[in-house]
Amino acid sequence: MNTKAHILVTGGAGFIGSHTVDLLMHAGYRVSVLDNLSTGYLTNIEQWIDHPRFNFVDADITTDLTAAFAGMVRRFGRIERIAHFAAQTAVPISMDDPVGDIQTNLAGTARILEYARHNKVAKVFFASSSAVYDDDAPVPVSEESRARPTSPYGIDKLAAEFYLDYYARLYGLTFTALRFMNVFGPRQDPKSWYSGVISIFLERAVTGQPITIFDDGNQTRDFVYVTDVAEAVVRALLSDAGNNAIINIGTGVEVTINALTHTILELAGSASPVRHEPARAGDIRRSVTTMDRAVALLNFNPRVELREGLHATLAWVPQEKTKPVAGSGAAA
After folding, report:
1. pLDDT digits (tens, 9 = 90+) for 223-271
2. Which of 61, 91, 176, 266 is such that its CA lies 20 to 30 A from the CA of 100?
3. Would residue 153 show up in a list of annotated catalytic residues for this protein?
4. Residue 104 sits in which domain range?
5. CA torsion sign, 245 to 92 to 193 to 88?
6. Catalytic residue among 29, 41, 133, 153
7. Count of CB atoms within 10 A of residue 179's CB?
């Protein structure tokens, strides 16, 4: 693919989106980022703001994006590929406001697909989630496991996948959807509604605050480091790898929250007290993926192990504490 191609990244000032932007910029692409900064930060992409191959547009995917996209095209030419991260990503918010979740996550995705259809975009990458799976599905889950989400967030992610398939069948759109397991790493804001457990626990360990574990702590997750995820995204976006496929992205390693907490406290040298509260509605009990399809279609093998990733993220946490608290809304 021509390295001067124009790539759009929605939610590109967010956690995973900004790491994807880094890889695309280092590879020589022209990159436009669309983000309303409700949960993303300009600091995540500040190294690129004045770069001649970079363009930032402050806009919300729930609104008419005609002018925003037209401006990108005037500057960098036709948008050839789209990485779509922009979303409302907090399960609790989706349960409190399912209509708002639909407007952002499902209707926003439909807007992106309509633009791609009418403007002959070569490929759309979609950031999906392991939240689409049934809580009672056999573990580890595969892409063939039953999808029966326990939250509006998961329902809208699954519905968006159906839209991708619909556009592929009727209009010839090419896509890849990656169902992320629990992604962690630098730039994941511990103060935001959508934060992962690792970013929250690390910040509390560093500051000596109590760590709250919902449920008994024996629930499990598959934690995958953000740079590994960004590499999978770029591989899927810029090649024919995984065309029109849905692929789980994780490590295949199941870790209990209790074990995670012990490791974080050890690495941080922290004496933070640990307390338990009742399980939250919508939370999955066990979560870990098979790796067969990721390996076969994307040649994806995560390189960063949990302890190494925790160490790298811990080094970044003191910087994060100086950032303002993000709100909720349509961003990655």
Report:
1. 999 999 999 999 999 999 999 999 999 999 999 999 999 999 999 999 9
2. 176
3. yes
4. 6-184+224-249
5. positive
6. 153
7. 25
